[in-house]
């Protein structure tokens, strides 16, 4: 089956309405441990005339050995990019959807610090639900688009940039808690990860409010 190649068709339509398109995509929503991350990229009319970087895809479709290189090329292609975070404690406190919204708001705020104000453009959000506005982002024009990470090049860029950043963070936590093998599973529910939870319990980086396993909490 052919792999979908993202285009700029949606972005070009949106750029008829606004001078900037901000694309957001999340990674880590379904993990048992670690933060959620939302990548954000921004493109303008000049970006939309350029060729999409070779190999750019939704991060799930880019082989892991190639992701860092694709992310670097994607970051060089868009006008700017950023990653926003919400950690496991915040996920436990406010729930996963609100945590995604907070991470997205933080990513967009980082772009504003670079001189790209989200309020002046349109926010293209991967998915079918606007989780950004309810998290406190007043005044933004958020447009959810199903499979944007697959079909829209700016969202693919946000996806792979966020994926590489989150994977690196999980690998950095491996030495602190090697039993969970986060360098391999990045906090997702692999057999080795679940086995370690049963044997040694939950770490501070696990999402304690989730029904992960009947295991004691590590402090």
Automatic annotation (TrEMBL):
It is found in: Cytoplasm. It catalyses: Endonucleolytic cleavage to 5'-phosphomonoester. PROSITE patterns: RNASE_H_2. Its EC number is 3.1.26.4. InterPro entries: RNase_HII, RNase_HII/HIII, RNase_HII/HIII_dom, RNaseH-like_sf, RNaseH_sf. It comes from the Bacteria. It comes from Microbacterium marinilacus. CDD domains: RNase_HII_bacteria_HII_like (cd07182). Coiled coil: none annotated. Its main location: cytoplasm. This is Ribonuclease.
């Amino acid at each position: 089956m052919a792999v979908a190649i993202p285009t700029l068709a949606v972005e070009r339509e949106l750029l008829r309405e606004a001078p900037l398109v901000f694309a957001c995509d999340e990674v880590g929503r379904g993990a048992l441990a670690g933060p959620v991350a939302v990548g954000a990229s921004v493109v303008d009319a000049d970006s939309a005339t350029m060729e999409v970087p070779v190999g750019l895809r939704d991060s799930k479709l880019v082989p892991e050995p190639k992701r860092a290189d694709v992310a670097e090329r994607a970051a060089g292609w868009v006008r700017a990019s950023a990653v926003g975070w919400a950690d496991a404690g915040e996920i436990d406190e406010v729930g996963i959807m609100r945590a995604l919204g907070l991470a997205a708001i933080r990513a967009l705020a980082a772009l504003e610090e670079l001189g790209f104000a989200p309020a002046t453009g349109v926010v293209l959000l991967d998915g079918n639900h606007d989780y950004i506005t309810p998290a406190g982002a007043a005044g933004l024009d958020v447009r959810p688009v199903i499979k944007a990470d697959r079909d829209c090049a700016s969202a693919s860029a946000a996806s792979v940039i966020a994926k590489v950043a989150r994977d690196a963070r999980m690998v950095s936590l491996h030495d602190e808690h090697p039993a969970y093998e986060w360098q391999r599973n990045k906090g997702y529910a692999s057999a080795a990860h679940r086995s370690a939870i049963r044997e040694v319990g939950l770490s501070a980086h696990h999402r304690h409010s989730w029904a992960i396993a009947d295991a004691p909490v590590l402090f």
